[in-house]
Write a structure and sequence with these properties.
The protein folds into two domains: 153 residues, 3-Layer(aba) Sandwich (Rossmann fold), CATH 3.40.50; 73 residues. It is built from six helices and nine strands, in the order βαβαβαβαββαββαβ. The two termini are 30 Å apart. The model has no long low-confidence stretch (mean pLDDT 80). By secondary structure, it is of the alpha/beta class. InterPro entries: Rossmann-like_a/b/a_fold (IPR014729), UspA (IPR006016). Pfam families: Usp.
């Protein structure tokens, strides 16, 4: 069996944006040659409520089994519904550190994170999301619940703020080739214009985080952060 050219990782907190993130990953994987892996991290302090070491260990083991079952059922549901293979993994630890370690070990070139409803920052939380967004060499997909991609529908790709239309990013080029409408440049976007908007990475550097938050807040479509 041939190895896919691209690796898509869905980083999820298992909250309301999870289904949207999975649908987005599946939509993109079906339009490109990509595999999908679902990854979740939970802080031990979210589970352990006692200083007793034995009780803490039991609580973590019990929650691990429960969470692992929840993830397996979720991934299996989407995998069967859309006829696509999705792998998954889960761990306890410091969320930022565990994400860094996972990304270093698996080296995906596409990362999907969800955007909370009516919030400017994505579902992983303010600090974690901004940390992920600054990963160089990665294409970051911010999946919007307001206008989510559907695996059975076509992709309409737009460009934000007249960024360059030529890319050395093979994944982006495959999306462009499979988009069902010509590329358009947008200053303000609504969901009738496009369902996927390409944004330049320079917009999420440390000096421009606030302006990027404003961009996220006014756009009700999924964003692709690349270049």
């Amino acid at each position: 069996m041939a190895v896919p050219k691209h690796k898509i990782v869905v980083l999820s907190d298992l909250k309301d944006s999870t289904a949207t993130s999975l649908k987005t990953a599946i939509s993109l994987a079906k339009k490109t040659d990509a595999s999908i892996h679902f990854f979740h991290v939970k802080k031990p302090t979210d589970v352990v409520v006692t200083d007793n070491q034995l009780s803490a260990k039991r609580a973590i083991n019990s929650n691990f089994t429960q969470t692992n079952k929840e993830i397996s059922e979720l991934v299996s549901e989407f995998s069967k519904k859309y006829d696509i293979n999705i792998t998954s993994s889960f761990t306890f630890g410091n969320i930022k550190n565990e994400i860094d370690l996972f990304l270093e070990n698996t080296n995906p070139n596409i990362i999907v994170i969800g955007k909370r409803r009516s919030k400017s920052i994505s579902a992983l939380g303010d600090k974690i999301s901004k940390h992920v967004l600054k990963k160089k060499g990665k294409t970051i997909i911010i999946a919007s619940t307001e206008s989510e991609l559907q695996p059975e529908n076509e992709i309409s790709l737009g460009l934000y703020n007249e960024i360059e239309q030529q890319h050395n990013n093979e994944f982006i080029n495959e999306i462009i080739e499979n988009a069902n409408k010509p590329l358009k440049n947008f200053q303000v976007v609504n969901s009738n214009d496009a369902n996927l908007i390409l944004v330049d990475r320079e917009m999420v550097n440390p000096k421009s985080t606030k302006s990027f938050d404003k961009l996220l807040n006014k756009m009700n479509v999924s964003l692709v952060v690349a270049n």
